[in-house]
Amino acid sequence: MPRVVVLTNPTSGKGRAARMRDEALPRFHGAGWHTTTLTSRNAEDAVDLARVAAAERPDVLVVCGGDGMVNAAIQALAGTDVPLGILPAGTGNDFARYFDLPLRDGAAAASRIINGSVRTVDVARVGERYFGGVLAAGFDAVVNERANRMRWPRGQMRYNLATLAELRVFQPLRYVLELDGQERTLDAMLVAIGNGPSFGGGLRITHGAELDDGLLDVVLIKPVSRLELVRTFPKLYDGSHVTHPQYEHHRVKRVTVACSGIVGYADGERFGALPLSVEAVPGALAVRA
User: Fold this and answer.
1) CA R_g for the chain
2) Which of 107-131 are b and which e, b meaning 16 or more Cβ less than 10 Å from the residue's Cβ?
3) C-alpha distance across the termini of the chain, in Å
4) Crossing angle between the packed helical segments 139-149 and 156-167, to the nearest 10 degrees
5) pLDDT tens digit string along 180-227?
6) d(CA 119, CA 286)
7) Phi and psi at residue 33, in whole multiples of 5°?
8) SS3 (DSSP) at 236
9) Residues 264-289, mean pLDDT to the nearest whole number
């Protein structure tokens, strides 16, 4: 009998995660799977619970929540052969999108886990931490910082307001990059480092990034006017921004990004102030989907 541990962030998606978990559990039981359910209180607690669960070597560790919960599980599962399963209940759900998982439908997502196969994919490492999606360091990270300081409103609207506020004052930033040992100094609106192709709920900033090529995709958006930034933003949804003359793309095994006063975010989590060094870790994560 397969054993599955289901780890839930009950506040994810304004309580949607608890509902999705309750939709998924009957599917697991009906398929003859033995389930253990765990509930996290916060991100740090989620990582601890994921590590405890992984040590028991279940057939799958399933997380029910958003990209933050996926990130917590990656900390525990990277470098092991315990597969990750996802019941996507967050706002962005980018890592789940990489596998075309059903969003906000717990029963359908559980069926994908039950009937799916295991795929081995890369992760990216920053010091002792891992991420599966995109690390952003620039305009988008500044927006995240502002949004995290705001008490109101909640949800996506808070980020929309933070974006508008930053657009009024944002100026290009001076970066120092080291791309597989080659140093460059340049001005840019943002630098994004992708293990996967998207962040922010389907914004394909590192369009073309592959999860199993052993490389990081580094994208630079060089200086543009505020109006041009607004015009270009919708193109991120289909990846057509790659034709913009101020777009630049590199594939590397390791990158260091430095910029004064900028904080890096990955998988929606604050990874810390720059400089940060990121390296690809090929084949480090098993995903069942």
Assistant:
1) 19
2) bbbbbbbbebeeeebbbbbbeebbb
3) 19
4) 120
5) 999 999 999 999 999 999 998 898 999 999 999 999 999 999 999 988
6) 6
7) -90, 140
8) helix
9) 96
pLDDT, one tens digit per residue, over 90-132 is 888 999 999 999 998 999 999 999 999 999 999 999 999 999 9
96-101 CB contacts, 8 Å cutoff, 24+ apart: 96/70, 97/198, 97/202, 98/133, 98/196, 98/197, 98/198, 98/211, 99/287, 99/289, 101/289
Residue-wise pLDDT for 154-182, tens only, equals 666 776 777 777 777 788 999 999 999 99
Domain 131-282 grouped into CATH 2.60.200.40: yes
Q: What's the number of CA atoms in the CB half-sphere (13 Å) around residue 148?
A: 11
What is the predicted pLDDT for the residue at 65?
Answer: 95
Q: Report the C-alpha gap between 238 and 35 in whole angstroms.
A: 38
Percent of the chain having pLDDT more than 90?
76
21 in Cβ contact with 37 (< 8 Å): yes
Given this model, what pLDDT does residue 13 score? 66
**Boundaries of every domain in the chain:** 3-116, 131-282
Contacts of 189 (CB under 8 A, 6+ apart): 138, 139, 170, 172, 173, 221, 222, 223, 224, 229
**Cα–Cα distance between 266 and 4 in angstroms, integer?**
27
277 touches 126 (CB < 8 A): yes
| The listed CATH number (3.40.50.10330, 3.50.50.60, 3.30.420.10, 1.10.520.10) that belongs to domain 3-116 | 3.40.50.10330
The DSSP output letter for 157 is H
Say what the pTM is: 0.93
d(CA 189, CA 221): 5
Cα–Cα distance measured from residue 2 to residue 23, given in angstroms and rounded to the nearest whole number: 19
